[in-house]
Amino acid sequence: MTVLVLGGTAEARELAAALGTVAELSLAGATQKPLSLPHRIGGFGGANGLAAYLSTKGYNGVIDATHPFAAQMSRNAYEATLSLNMPLLRLERPPWPSKAAWKNVPDMLGAAKATPAAASVFLSIGSQSLGPFLQRDDIWCLTRSIEPPVQAPPIGEVLLERPPFTLAHELALMQHHNISHLVSKNAGGEATYAKIRAANTLGIQVIMVKRPQLPEALTVETVAEAVKWVENLGE
Ligand code: NAP
Description:
Blueprint: E1 3-6, H1 10-19, E2 23-27, E3 40-41, H2 46-57, E4 61-64, H3 71-84, E5 88-91, E6 103-105, H4 108-113, E7 120-124, E8 140-145, E9 156-160, H5 167-176, E10 181-185, H6 194-202, E11 205-209, E12 219-220, H7 223-233
Parallel strand pairs: 1-2, 1-4, 2-3, 4-5, 5-12, 6-11, 7-8, 7-10, 8-9, 10-11
Helix pairs in contact: 1-7, 2-3, 5-6
């Protein structure tokens, strides 16, 4: 019994460790120094490439444990497993419950539109999602990511940091930069929630990007449930 675990999250790392030799962990290669030692790195070449890979390797199932905003990989996993009639499980942490004070927006373009001129913005959205902010020369941006962005917004600073972050750290950071707006993806989980708590404490406007819509798939929220799913695969 072997499964392919599509990673890029702490949960995928924990799951691969829990499953041991039963699993192959796959990473996109987006991070230069990944925390886990992956079994393989790099794309498969779309849904067809993934389907070919899965059948060549003779896997019994796929666990999509990618980040909730890695929509392309999740769609590819859905299509590839459907075409092979192979079991698919999605391991996905629940989103943060919406707060009345947040401005919820459907995507990053919506986030940029919701950001007013003259704002001091904390962009905590990773290095790949900055597009709609790159032409904004009317706002000051603190851009935080693990990897350096290829291009950053024209005015502001880039901060390279890896989660988890403490509340004290986030409070000090936002106060130091006199932040007025926080832009965040609704990633869920504890590792990056301190920024939301800090923004609430300081009265900073939170602009929250909703998760992308994904095809319906069997979904669990915890590593333990995913391990159980693998144990039951052969039955
Ligand atoms: P994406 O847009 O959904 O995927 C783009 C392409 O990257 C996929 O089509 C696939 O290439 C390749 N890919 C993605 N995840 C892969 C994996 N686990 N193993 C092998 N190939 C993978 O993903 P993304 O948003 O660029 O994110 C890239 C990685 O960073 C993901 O693994 C994700 O879990 C992680 N991550 C993303 C975010 C975020 O906010 N998007 C945040 C934290 C971590 P092919 O089509 O060639 O197979």
